[in-house]
Design a protein that fits this description.
Helices cover about 45% and strands about 20% of the residues. By secondary structure, it is α/β, with parallel strands linked by helices. It folds into 3 domains: about 40 residues; about 260 residues, Aminopeptidase; about 100 residues, Alpha-Beta Plaits. The strands form 5 sheets. The protein has a 6-stranded mixed β-sheet. Strands 14-13-17-15-16 form a 5-stranded mixed β-sheet, with helices on one face. β2 and β3 form a beta hairpin. α1 crosses α2. The longest helix is centred in the N-terminal third of the chain and has 42 residues. It is elongated. The chain starts with a helix and ends with a strand.
Length: about 450
């Protein structure tokens, strides 16, 4: 009996020794893997980004070889009879410069050849429904912008609601009181102005608001009707990105992918998406700029009684260059900026003598300057430039940050004077948006390009 016990005891000891050896080997392997993983993570930039890059099999050269990612985003409301893409945006992200861009495409943008014979089916928001798919819209946007966009994503209303709820809501500064009811769509909007946390339902209300029950909309300075809605959409997306990229939400990637799978139609391959995700976690919304496609809105009498927006090809080409190309060539930008500054100074010098001749004409014109640059000193610089041109009746104010400087003609001021202002203050877009109720003749919105 004792001999049998001793044999069993020896076998047990041997098993314990074997397991100890296995455990030691496992610990060594884990330590080795940990050391290798740490080394690779550091080589990939360190932090959460480096860790994710290592997990998906990247090395230190992967990011360098990734091109800028461009995608056409289209939003559709599933409670409407027709699938109209009333939200259309071009979005881009560069993992190397960590810069991103959003360009809104007005839903009434005309895609035909002759505006005098315009039809509603030629508006860009109708193409998805007519073609029963996104390809026609993608083709039209590429033709308008000159961008070679390969990818698209069609996002249903349910995706937005679910995403916002999944990330715990989004803090946003609602720009005005919003009250609107449309029983035919079962759409009821009721939001108060100010900073608040929006859940999915309220987010949908925010993004669908164009005007209230009384017909009032956003201010002209903010962007009236569709233009105001597009601006709100761009700023809300920025807030959503900021919230989504918080560490606690990064680990909800499975839930977010499930939402996308159920409510997003896209041609983006998962293998493509995973290459960009590790670097997207580094992104800061401070590096996001947004704008709207430059268009003019002719009187419906000139467009077959159809409300359309006609693309300004010259301004569009200029804006596309600034948003999607110049940002990635900072050295060229510095050179251009210096050259532009010299030219501006020269033009101010030459204009100072001629401006005296127009003092009598400009002295009575009421001008409003709204500062959207984030730098208070820019307001005074712009005011001084106007004073040099003979303007004396100048109001000052601030507005939300915007990228483009815009001169808005509200009372039919002579175009020569608007061009003179543009020449004095530098890069600017001139917009005719006549308003009999406006208290000023000209509104100048200073953008970050000032």
């Amino acid at each position: 009996m004792k001999q049998k016990y001793k044999k069993t005891e020896k076998k047990t000891k041997k098993k314990i020794k074997l397991w100890k050896k296995i455990l030691i080997i496992l610990i060594i392997l884990l330590l080795a893997f940990g050391a290798w993983f740490y080394y690779k993570t550091q080589k990939n930039g360190g932090g959460l980004s480096g860790m994710l890059a290592t997990v998906v099999g990247h090395d230190e050269n992967t990011r360098k070889n990734l091109p800028e990612f461009k995608i056409l985003l289209m939003g559709i409301s599933t409670d409407l009879e027709a699938d109209l893409t009333d939200t259309i945006m071009v979005a881009s992200y560069n993992p190397n410069t960590q810069k991103a861009t959003i360009l809104s495409i007005p839903r009434d943008t005309y895609t035909g050849k002759n505006p005098k014979r315009a039809t509603a089916s030629q508006k860009i928001n109708a193409l998805y429904n007519i073609a029963n798919g996104p390809e026609s819209t993608l083709e039209a946007v590429n033709e308008i912008t000159g961008l070679d966009i390969e990818y698209y994503a069609v996002v249903k209303t349910e995706a937005l609601i679910s995403l916002v709820d999944a990330i715990g809501g989004v803090e946003f500064d609602v720009p005005r009181d919003m009250k609107y009811d449309d029983p035919t769509q079962n759409l009821h909007i009721n939001l108060k102005k100010g900073v608040q946390v929006l859940d999915g339902d309220k987010a949908e209300q925010l993004l669908r608001y164009r005007h209230g029950n009384n017909g009032e909309s956003y201010s002209l300075e903010y962007g009236d009707n569709d233009f105001g809605r597009m601006r709100t959409q761009r700023e809300f997306i920025s807030a959503v990105l900021k919230q989504t990229l918080k560490p606690e939400n990064i680990f909800k990637i499975g839930e977010l992918l499930d939402i996308a799978h159920k409510n997003v139609e896209t041609n983006v391959d998962l293998n493509v998406a995973k290459d960009y995700i590790p670097y997207a976690v580094e992104f800061s919304t401070e590096n996001l700029i947004s704008d709207v496609l430059p268009v003019t809105v002719p009187d419906v009498k000139e467009t077959n009684n159809v409300s359309i927006a006609v693309v300004n090809e010259k301004e569009t080409a200029k804006l596309i260059q600034e948003l999607f190309y110049d940002r990635d060539n900072p050295e060229e930008n510095v050179e251009d900026s210096e050259n532009g500054e010299d030219e501006t100074n020269m033009s101010n010098t030459t204009d100072s003598s001629s401006s005296n001749t127009s003092n009598s004409e400009t002295a009575n014109i009421k001008v409003e300057i709204l500062n959207g640059t984030g730098e208070q000193e820019n307001l005074q610089i712009a005011k001084q430039k106007l004073q040099q041109l003979g303007y004396r009746n100048i109001k000052e104010g601030n507005t939300n940050a915007t990228s483009k400087t815009t001169i808005i003609n509200k009372k039919g001021v002579n175009n020569a004077l608007l061009e003179q202002i543009k020449e004095s203050i530098g890069n600017a877009i001139i917009s005719n948006s006549l308003s009999s109720s406006s208290s000023v003749d000209i509104t100048i919105v200073l953008g970050k390009d000032f």
